[in-house]
Design a protein that fits this description.
about 90 residues; mainly alpha
Length: about 90
């Protein structure tokens, strides 16, 4: 019974329900928060575009290195194939 009485006293001491001014303030705070989140996401998109550009440059550089410098395949050490001329 004591718990019920304490909860009733706490509930009675709570401020009255939201007023129109409180709702308007909440709506304004929500809109400001929404704008802040949009700004943050826009900044992340800029970072992503910069990163994509850097990755593209790296890929182009690697492709250029692969196409200009090709090593000939060397024979495996310790293993030699018989020549076709020696067989006949």
């Amino acid at each position: 019974m004591r718990v019920f009485t304490q909860i009733r006293i706490m509930a009675a001491s709570l401020p009255p329900t939201s007023t129109a001014a409180d709702l308007a303030q909440l709506r304004q705070d929500f809109e400001e928060l929404k704008l802040d989140i949009e700004d943050i996401l826009a900044d992340q998109n800029v970072i992503n575009e910069d990163t994509r550009a850097q990755l593209e440059l790296i890929n182009q550089s690697l492709a250029a290195l692969q196409s200009t410098h090709r090593l000939e395949r060397r024979p495996i050490a310790g293993f030699s194939l018989p020549n076709k001329e020696e067989k006949s």
